[in-house]
Amino acid sequence: MTDFLFDGPAKADVTVLLAHGAGAPMDSGSMTAAARALAAEGLRVARFEFGYMAARRDGQRRPPPKAELVMPEYVAAIDALKAKGKLIIGGKSMGGRVASMIADDMHAAGKIAGLVCLGYPFHPMGKPTQLRTAHLARMTCPALIVQGTRDIMGSRDEVAGYALSETIEILWLEDGDHDLKPRKAVSGFTAAQHMQAMAARVAAWATEL
User: Fold this and answer.
1) Cα(140)–Cα(158) distance, rounded to whole angstroms?
2) Contact, 49 vs 22, CB < 8 A?
3) Which domain holds residue 113?
4) What is the pLDDT of residues 36-69, one digit of tens each?
5) Residue 70: in which H helix or E strand, if any?
6) In Å, what is the CA distance from 169 to each residue of 10, 99, 145, 157?
7) Mapped to the 3 state alphabet, what secondary structure does 106-118 carry?
8) End-to-end CA distance of the chain
9) Across all residues in the chain, what is the average pLDDT?
């Protein structure tokens, strides 16, 4: 059975289901900051963990499996959540990538309204030629990718050269890293401001779906 961590109003019109990144759990600092920012915009946020990460809480150190292997777990989480109203799926880094790999099927089945990725891993760290974009080029599900301009897994300069579907919108956060955090001395922005900008855009985008 999937365990969820909730934020935001229980009766919100929009629910956002988020999965974690490869190396940090659903209650990591970046996941918590994102969830609280989205909740402050009136969205219901549900976080969950893939099995390998949940097992770490019991002392079992398991490496992240290939994204394809946890796709069924994400589908199961959607079914277990039984969200009322509009459902958007997504996640941080790997969590968003896994969600993107099931998004078209879930959207076609009427189970979700859209996809949100927070720091999409367009390529593995240090391997810019190993792109994870083939399915993004043909995506039919409405999608919003929130990306830092200096993300080491897909900077603004790199992503500019990728072929992406017209259904994908990208919100660029100035000087943000893979956790969307900027260097205030360089950009003039704080991490909290970027979280607020992310959440405001997600909320507005969700109402447009």
Assistant:
1) 22
2) no
3) 5-208
4) 999 999 999 999 999 999 998 888 888 899 999 9
5) helix 67-81
6) 28, 16, 6, 16
7) HHHCCCCCEEEEE
8) 30
9) 96
User: CA–CA separation, 30 vs 188, rounded Å?
Assistant: 20
Both tokens assigned to 127: 């391997």
**86-92, strands of its sheet edge to edge:** 5-7, 44-48, 14-19, 86-92, 114-118, 143-148, 168-173
Give residue 169's identity as a one-letter amino acid code.
Answer: E
Enumerate the H helices of the chain as residue ranges. 29-40, 51-56, 67-81, 94-108, 134-137, 156-159, 184-187, 191-208
Q: What is the tally of structural domains in the chain? A: 1
* CATH assignment at residue 137: 3.40.50.1820
pLDDT of residue 73: 98
- Cα–Cα distances in Å, from 98 out to 36, 68, 209? 22, 7, 21
To which H or E segment does residue 129 belong? none
Residue at 16: amino acid letter? V
- 159 with 146: CB under 8 angstroms? no
Which of 94, 92, 116, 93 lies closest to 103, judged by CA?
A: 116
Dump pLDDT digits (tens) for 183-193: 999 999 999 99
Q: Are strands 44-48 and 86-92 parallel, antiparallel or unpaired?
A: unpaired
Amino acid (one-letter) located at 96:
G
According to the model, what pLDDT value does residue 57 have? 83
